[in-house]
Amino acid sequence: MDRAAPAPPPRGLRLAPRDLDVLRFAVRHGMVSPEQLSARFFTGPAPARRRLRALEAAGLLVADRVLPALPNVVRATPRGARLAGCDLAPASLDLARVRHNLTLVDLSEQLLATHPGSSWTTERELRRDRMRAARAGGAWERQRRVPDGLLRLDDGTRVAVELDLTPKRSARLDLLAGAYAVDRDVDTVWWYLPSETAVSRLGALVAERGLEHLIEPRAWRSRRGC
Predict the structure, then answer these.
(1) Please, which residues have CB within 8 angstroms of residue 223's CB and are 6 or more apart in sequence?
(2) Which end of the chain, C or N, has fewer beta carbons within 10 A?
(3) What is the CATH number of domain 17-93?
(4) What are the CA-CA distances from residue 224 to residues 52, 218, 220 (Å)?
């Protein structure tokens, strides 16, 4: 992962290595929940709340209290993003994407836990890298499908991960499947869907295109019930 030169830490706050890890995690994923940060970096909710409040008071994180039906989210501020050194701008609050974003974080953490030695590249990082390649003259980069994330297994296999929380129209699924059929930078696609019915529907489309070797539909529901 590329990192820009980090900004100096704010006065009055001594940053520990874990604090920088929290900032990087937040800026890489864009929007995360306090519970996700607690599970990843802290020993429990209480120490997580104390440290996240300190980082928020220092102007490095912002906590968004969104709609009652949606979880609270945490984002890096511009200063927090600079300090993280990921060469990514802070994410804006996008209410339409909160549920998908947080569910995708859950999925990525589960995949990393069940595939030791693997690494995860977020959609934000993939878009950053594609834009760089396009500016360098790679016109094809602008046309490629950007997955929800890329899981690189310890044997080097590149797995594009797609997460659908709601059914897509067949024409849209067909378009996305076709995009992966010509993408040489992806070895396989794990396509996570909310029900076995959705898996069967996509599986039939994949079979029609002869892409069973490339695209694997999977049923998955997070603890959020999405």
Answers:
(1) 106
(2) N
(3) 1.10.10.10
(4) 22, 17, 11
